[in-house]
Amino acid sequence: MRRRVGNSNRGRARPQRGAALVEFALVLPLLVLLCLIVVALGRAFWHYKVLVQSVREAARYLAAQKPGEGTDQARNLVLRGSLSANAPLQLTYLSATDPVQVSWQRDSQTGLALVTVTVPSYRFESWWGSWAGGELGRIQFRPIAATQRIASC
135 pLDDT exceeds 70? Predict the structure, then answer.
């Protein structure tokens, strides 16, 4: 093995040794925090998507029923993802007391009978919001509604 004759590091001190480790130690908490925020926002949007789909399914279910019937089953579809009242809640932060509004109306211009299912408010609370403090981990979603034409009146 040959030795380089013009070695530039020979008489010099190495002040850069360990600098990458120090930089990594400074940046790591920020990267972990960024990852936690991305995961929490992803969960929030996934919950929103599940709730929107459940409201649509409930509206479709009621569109096949007679006006005024099936309200409890539609409410179960929104809260539990099932027609059964014994099924577990499909989202962690939903509760059996969360309001699900159902309304039937007839469009005066077209004469069509419509059913609307609405969840007026839904608050997502992130798992890291409680220790991060205050309102940081909470997201208040807008009202979610779906309207379907009733098949027969």
Answer: no
